Amino acid sequence: QDNGLGIKDAQLFAETFSRRLGVNPEHAVLAYEDAMYYLWKERRLAVNADVFNSDLEDEEERIRLARVFEQGLDSPVGCLLPLMHQWWNDVPCWRSGHWPVRSENLFLIPGDSPMGLRLPLDSLPAPVTGEYSPVPVVPFEETEALPDYEQLSQHTAFQRTAHKSVGRVQHQVLQRAGGGGVLEKPHRETPPDAEVPAYNAGIIRTAMCFEPREGNLHIFMPPVDRLESYLELIAKIEQTAEELDIPIILEGYLPPSDYRLKHIKVTPDPGVIEVNVQPAQNWQELVEITSGVYEDARHSRLGTEQFDLDGTHTGTGGGNHIVMGSYTPHDSPFLRRPDLLRSLIAYWHNHPSLSYFFSGRFIGPTSQAPRVDEGRRDATYELQIAFEQIPEKGDVPPWLVDRVFRHLLVDLTGNTHRAEFCIDKLYSPDSATGRLGLVEFRGFEMPPHWQMSLTQQLLLRALVARFWNKPYQPNLVDWNTSIHDRWLLPHFIQQDFEDVIEELYEEGFPLEASWFEPHYEFRFPFIGEIQNRGIHVELRTAIEPWYVLGEEPAGGATARFVDSSVQRLQVKVRGMSNGRHILLCNGRKIPLHSTGTEGEFVAGVRYRAWQPPSCLHPTIPVDEPLVLDTLDTWVNRSIGGCTYHVGHPGGLNPGTFPVNGYEAESRRAARFFKMGHTGGPKSIPEDEKNALFPMTLDLRRNRGIV
Predict the structure, then answer these.
(1) Based on C-alpha coordinates, what's the Rg of the chain?
(2) 468-504, pLDDT tens digit by residue?
(3) What CA–CA distance (Å, rounded) separates 599 from 229?
(4) DSSP states of 416-474
(5) What is the chain's mean pLDDT, rounded?
(6) Helices 450-469 & 283-299 angle (0-180, nearest 10)
(7) In the predicted structure, residue 204 carries a pLDDT above the cut 50
(8) Quick one: CA torsion of 344, 346, 351, 356, rounded to 10 degrees?
(9) Nearest CA to 586 among 543, 646, 534, 497?
(10) What confidence tier does 30 reach under pLDDT thresholds 50, 70, 90?
């Protein structure tokens, strides 16, 4: 909505706000576009080019130049107020001042961003010895309750604060740096030409900006180091807006991280809307937050699921990452008991179902949440050594858990964020915001229903409670290549997950495996089944790791594509006589393995689904359709089979996504036929031995055997 606000309204708001905050309103100055730069850009254009028409090849540059020239090079962009919150002798105050620049006016850096992101900070004088520098908040520092609105409104400079000790610390820092003096009041207004005292010698290097844009007044918040200071600015802005009857839009820096402030962040991401919700203190809050997010998404016409062109039911592509810890770092269970994190990492390692049961389709060493043993061959060995460095009892320094695991919980490139267990905010040495005592579990994809999300969170709560009472200490299993063989098949994932539920039940946490059946059907969609002479064959989608390829030129830049051209399915057979019947896929013998149940066998089939120009082995053609035959070796004939197509069997592949689940289901059903087996006599094919992946038939290999 255009409220018709202009530069005069911005200047009036800035001056009124300055008086309310107790700083000199003369320090609020106008900022302009860099006229010399845009005149230089105009002179470099072709003679017949018109910035107001579509004569320029770069559309963004044309729009930028047209906007600047329409506005006028002599018209102010907005109003700027240098501002910083400072402590002196245990007294908080707001400081302001002039920005000394070479030119008479203040010119912004060219660009399209808000003026708060285009301030000419490089033009300010270099910092001098004794200049004030903020002291970061210590996360372990004790705090009091935040002030209410009335307290913030009554004081010119906020007197009541939870960080009283910080003022004394900063006083000592400034004394050592050569500063001195005592403030007689929160802020002493100083004329521009007056001599400033020694403690005020530094230049104010942060500023609040008031910019009229599209008829609205945008206020760019400056960075501050204390939440109380940020709230005071908000209170003064609100009072000023009410006094002048001017609606405003806030932008700029977020408030500093503080557990006393609950917030929800909504961020646009490619293809999804990322929502970071506030922490929950108990199960009831967790239920309310989770169900509320799903309900709000539905009312906003946003979905928590999607359907591919072929009708495959998938997640949104975004994560359902779960962060656990405490409101304060010193109360975090992972810092109080480092063996808790060790137990969780070891349990996830020994139970691969926890890594893959709730993950998205993009898994593997180059995914967003790789397992520790997916990137390095010796990772299991090194992880076992790291476990030995965690003491069982006694006081443990908080930095120990970060130092022990930081270089193991990483991806192939050493990125600590792209890991199954992200400890970026546990006790990072980088900054105070990285020492929050939090652990992020990233191996979870967004489920389609809020109750499915809650069962995931309930499972995590139960595992944390279990290992808090009784640490997990078995040795790590070296899965070797089986992690991408048997553990990618739904049968073994389900079997292993049932063991997890049973162990929790024995420890006093009565979770039920039936609660997670929707996750199983969602993660491993059913394809089809056939029954021939008492032999039951079921096809179900399995997991296939996708790899990030090497760098390639794309659109004038460099890109790294993800190879999603290979897929995998599980073949599960019941009632088959192992000595008489074998199962073939496109004429090749499937390496069926017994599940331990009489007459039940399972195996995986890996195949090239499509052939994009950028993929591994681009010369290997597509393997579809997949024709499965149940071969009776006594008569050397197929007694039945089925056919599975990757795309539409008639070639009518749709160009639009399904509008709902019913259309998606019809597209999936059209790709499976309970017929199409190979007729006539059939010779028994050779066994295809694969020492690295014995449970998988890779149709991309040994094509000459057919």
Answers:
(1) 32
(2) 999 999 899 999 999 999 999 999 999 999 999 999 9
(3) 71
(4) SSSSSEE-TTTS-SS-GGG-S--EEE---B--SSHHHHHHHHHHHHHHHHHHHHS---P
(5) 85
(6) 160
(7) yes
(8) 70
(9) 646
(10) very high
Q: Is 276 helix (H, G, I), strand (E, B) or coil?
A: strand
Report how far residue 335's alpha carbon sits from residue 399's, in angstroms, rounded to the nearest whole number.
8
Nearest 5°: the CA angle 506, 509, 514 is 95
DSSP 668-697: HHTTEES--PPPSB-PPPPP---SS-TTEE
CA dist., res. 22 & res. 81, Å (int): 13
Domain limits, the chain = 7-31+75-252, 34-72, 265-479, 525-705
List the one residue out of 84, 48, 382, 38 whose CA is nearest residue 205: 84
pTM (2 decimals)?
0.83
Task: Report pLDDT digits (tens) over 309-352.
Answer: 888 998 888 889 999 999 888 899 999 999 999 999 999 999 99
Q: Can you tell me the distance from the alpha carbon of 550 to that of 397, in angstroms, rounded to the nearest whole number?
A: 42
When pLDDT is cut at 50, 70 and 90, the band that residue 47 belongs to is low
- pLDDT tens digits along 522-538: 999 999 999 988 999 99
Structure tokens at 130: 């004794």
Distance, CA of 705 to CA of 701 (rounded, Å):
9
* Residue closest to 693 by CA, chosen among 551, 474, 542, 563: 542
User: Residue 100 — very low, low, confident or very high, per pLDDT cuts 50/70/90?
Assistant: confident
Q: For residues 452 and 446, give the distance between their C-alpha atoms in angstroms, rounded to a whole number.
A: 9
Count of residues in the chain: 706
Q: How far apart are CA 664 and CA 98, in angstroms?
A: 63
Helices (H), 179-327: 227-244, 283-299
What distance in Å separates the CA atoms of residue 424 and residue 418, rounded to the nearest whole number?
10
How high is the pLDDT of residue 178? 42
Residue matched to tokens 């104010």: 204
Nearest to 702 by CA among 547, 585, 571: 585
Dihedral over alpha carbons 202, 206, 212, 216 (to 10 degrees): -140
Look at residues 220, 223, 215 and name the one whose alpha carbon lies nearest to residue 247: 215
- Indicate if the alpha-carbon torsion angle 309, 311, 316, 318 is positive or negative: negative
What span, in angstroms and rounded, lies between the C-alpha atoms of 543 and 527? 14
Largest CA distance in the chain: 107
Q: Of 204, 209, 208, nearest to 230 (Cα)? A: 208
Cα distances from 165 to residues 92, 168, 223, 225, 258, in angstroms, run 12, 5, 21, 14, 17
Helices (H) and strands (E) in the chain, counts: 16, 28
According to the model, what pLDDT value does residue 174 have?
Answer: 43
pLDDT tens readout for residues 622-677: 998 999 999 999 999 999 999 999 988 888 888 899 998 899 999 999 999 998 88
pLDDT of 655 reads 85
Say if residues 420 and 371 touch (Cβ distance below 8 Å): yes
